[in-house]
Model the fold of this input.
Amino acid sequence: MGNSFKVSRFKPFKRRKMGFTLLEIMVVMAILAMLVALVAPNILSRSDDAKVAVAKTQLRNIVSALDLYKLDNGNYPSTSQGLQALVTRPTGYPEARNWKQGGYLPSLPKDPWGADFLYISPGAQGAYDLLSLGSDGREGGEGDASDIVSRAL
Done:
């Protein structure tokens, strides 16, 4: 019989080139949905923790700048002068006699929720009160909505 007869009972499998079937796409989507359902809550709760940590770091930086301001000028800025006194030379009382050229901060940060930090001088419990009102922007609250106060750092 020899090699001249080359008919094979098995034909090679030809792969379709039409793309994915609807079933394949639905299975992948279901797997992705399950992964998102498992992972998303952990990531989102960590985002709130990270914002609180950033707010505390920003408060520490502002406290350091306020302490330098006091060393140079003998007092903290008044409530009316506000935290802006750390960026631009303040006017009014108390006078900033030895205000550092260039300021104590390059700019005033906003808290991680986009609000201004609150500054009151003299404060209720010391030289000044410096705080972020948290995610809800109101006094009090719990979790990431609680106030973050510089004296508690």
In short: The radius of gyration is 31 Å. The CA atoms of residues 5 and 11 lie 15 Å apart. The chain is about 35% helix and 5% strand. Strands lie at 118-120, 129-132, 148-149.
